[in-house]
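dude i think i finally got it to work??
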Amino acid sequence: MRHLVEQARDGDVDAFSRLASASIADLYAVARLILRDTPRAEDAVQDALVEAWRSIRGLRDPDRFDAWMHRLLVRACHRQGRTKTRREVVELHLLETDAPLLDDSAVSLANRDQLERGFRRLPLDQRAVIVLHFYRGLPLTDVAEILAIPAGTAKSRLHRATQTLRAALEADAREPGLAKGRIA
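look at this
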């Protein structure tokens, strides 16, 4: 891969195209997890790749291409997160009924939905740390390098994010219907 990065740095479009093709699925997955919005994730990946092509000559260490690319992606996610899109949200408040308990797969789906709602409450900088650390499996030192922040800041963002998620899950558990595993 180092050879491709060096070729791309020298202006080889085909080499850059191969690098982009090799990393686009991973970049999209990370962007989707951070932004929780498919069109914004696609835009963030595209923005990151365009920025990578424009600035690849400035990449000093070809071995750090992946970390550099993820840094560009996280910045693009932040820019996408700041843009407002109009969405219609309909919120239904249902009365608690004597509905039967959900089966295991429905409970699992409800738990994932509950986690998703909590994740959406997190600021983008905290989502980025969670995604890179837990979903990508990167150590916090690598996460800090990708995000261009001190390691202590990455640790504190991770701590605040897990506290916020825990509080959101506990709040949802107190809502009628969710805590008892019933359809709401």
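Residues 151-174 form the longest helix (24 residues).
im so relieved honestly
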